[in-house]
């Protein structure tokens, strides 16, 4: 059996009480492709593509679920400031019981789609890092990531030589090191 709570809003723009823009460009903040994962001791994190800073396309934002209130907290920008100049898409989130939290997405800042990721450490998001083997020539997009029980990263994505080329699936294993 499963019971459900009423749905709630995740994307809230500070100062507006909603996700709306404060400039006359469209309605709402424009969000897409939400992903959700557990980490630590039952914590929950959601990440999504958000167009609240609409001039350069979508950015990656996220929020933690407050387990006491059952509400999602303050929205936090996941991708770094260098990502502001290019759109990001196709968010994926992975968490681990030890508290590790990763977010991956495809990112066009180098002129083509590459898979980038960031991790949260001491409450702050790291600089964006290209996923080894999922960046460079060609198009790498639509990532899916998971951390296994040992903390190893498993990543899969769609790859093509160019935007109009045939697609293929790629997989990468990243061994956890202390």
Task: Tell me what the structure shows.
There is one protein chain. With 178 residues, the protein is mainly β. It has a single domain (31-174), classed as 5 Propeller (Tachylectin-2, Chain A), CATH 2.115.10. It is built from no helices and 13 strands. The chain has strands spanning 31-39, 43-50, 59-66, 71-72, 76-77, 88-95, 101-107, 114-121, 124-125, 129-130, 139-147, 153-160, 168-174. The strands form three sheets. Strands 1, 2, 3, 4 and 5 form a five-stranded antiparallel β-sheet that branches. Strands 6, 7, 8, 9 and 10 form a five-stranded antiparallel β-sheet that branches. Strand 7 and strand 8 form a beta hairpin. It is globular, with a radius of gyration of 17 Å.
Features:
globular, 178 residues, 13 strands, 5-stranded antiparallel sheet, mainly beta, Tachylectin-2, Chain A
**Tally of domains:** 1
Mean pLDDT equals 88
Backbone shape: globular
CATH class: Mainly Beta
Helix content: under 10%
Distance between the termini: 40 Å
CATH superfamily: Glycosyl hydrolase domain, family 43
Structural class: mainly beta
Number-wise, the strands total: 13
SSE layout and pairing:
Blueprint lengths: L30 E9 L3 E8 L8 E8 L4 E2 L3 E2 L10 E8 L5 E7 L6 E8 L2 E2 L3 E2 L8 E9 L5 E8 L7 E7 L4
Antiparallel strand pairs: 1-2, 2-3, 3-4, 3-5, 6-7, 7-8, 8-9, 8-10, 11-12, 12-13
Entry summary:
The chain has no helices and 13 strands.
